Amino acid sequence: PYEVPVSKGVQFQVSADKLLSVEAPAMCMRPAGRLVNGELPVEDPLHNGGTTILNDGKNNPPTYALGVTPDFPSGIVALEFGCSAGGVGWPMVIGFYDSNLELVGSLDFHDVDQQEHSTVKTLQFSNDGFDATWFTNDDTTCHTGADDSVPRSGHLTIDKSGKVRVSNLTTGQSSVPCP
Questions:
Q1: pLDDT at residue 172, rounded to an integer
Q2: Could you write out the DSSP letters of every residue in 78-122?
Q3: In Å, how far from its chain's centre is CA 176?
Q4: What is the distance in angstroms between the CA of the first residue and the CA of the last residue of the chain?
Q5: Which of 69, 76, 87, 126 is most buried per CB count within 10 Å?
Q6: Backbone phi, then psi, for 174, in 5-degree steps?
Q7: Amino acid 71: pLDDT
Q8: What is the mean pLDDT of the chain?
Q9: Cβ(75)–Cβ(2) under 8 Å?
């Protein structure tokens, strides 16, 4: 498990196993709900919206980072979620959890990019927040649809009320040439 000093002699720990049963944020045309083995159970297979899963759904361990902030002195966890509907991945979502692994808030990368796809690549705690890098598509170039080759990065912070802010947002150039 990852450990972070919270105060003198106290450690904040989270294991990947505990993350497999947290409450997933509302996403993927589905309400929030408790994960079972890293996936939100489907109640109605014909009208389920999409599949809410930890990370990328390819049996990789969950992507998460943790730390302590002035608003969360006992600890805060950022956890990556994916969504698949009809075999197409949607923009990823980051759920934020307090030290009791209760959902505090979330960030849907569609709200940041306004694009069809966004795939988180890295997530790490830094400066009272989380530095994230991800790839998305871009409707102004040839990198549209499922082509998520445009790199982006930003610093994510969350306050006690659950409001998530993205700062230091940067967009790079795709390494994939246009046809």
A1: 76
A2: EEEEEEEETTEE---EEEEEETT--EEEEEEHHHHH-SS-EEEEE
A3: 25
A4: 45
A5: 76
A6: -65, 140
A7: 94
A8: 78
A9: no
